[in-house]
Amino acid sequence: MEAKHLNIVVMKHKINLALQIIPQVASERVYAVVDEAIAIIQASGVPYRVCPFETVMEGPYDQLMDIARRAQEACFKAGANQLLVYIKMQIRKDEDVTMEEKVAKYDNN
User: Fold this and answer.
1) What total of structural domains would you count in the chain?
2) Rounded-to-integer distance, Cα 46 and Cα 96, Å
3) Do the beta carbons of residue 97 and residue 14 sit within 8 Å?
4) Which of 11, 32, 34, 46 could form a disulfide with 61 if both were Cys (CB 3.0 to 4.6 A apart)?
């Protein structure tokens, strides 16, 4: 059988990535540990929006995945023994995805 080669699309466009991290820690420490993850996102310089259940970021795929990894590491450093991590992404093949296109009409309400 002949080996098939996959064409890999380099994702250079901006995407949206929603990150939710639920750390396994005492209930009174959950927000403090999540704050450590959000601090990583804030320090990254990418556009982001903190929402009640997740934080949404905008930027290149590889950069956002690296931020998500570092946010998880920060939670472990803050004392979590286990994490539940949920990631949602919107990716377009040939153009950027922006948070503004989805929420701008609601920002003035």
Assistant:
1) 1
2) 14
3) yes
4) 11
Q: What is the rounded CA–CA span in Å between residue 102 and residue 108?
A: 13
Q: What is the pTM of this model?
A: 0.87
pLDDT tens digits, residue range 22-81?
999 999 999 999 999 999 999 999 999 999 999 999 999 999 999 999 999 999 999 999
**C-alpha R_g of the chain:** 16
Indicate the burial class of 59 (C-beta count within 10 angstroms; 0-12, 13-18, 19 or more).
Answer: buried
One-letter amino acid at 62 equals D
Sign of the C-alpha dihedral computed for residues 105, 38, 64 and 46 taken in this order: positive
Per-residue pLDDT reduced to its tens digit, 81-104: 999 999 999 999 899 999 999 888
Q: β-strands 14-23, 48-50: how paired?
A: unpaired
Q: Which residues contact 29 (CB under 8 A, 6 or more apart)?
A: 23, 79
CATH number at residue 74: 3.30.70.930
Is 7 contained in some domain? no
As a whole number, mean pLDDT of residues 4-19 equals 76
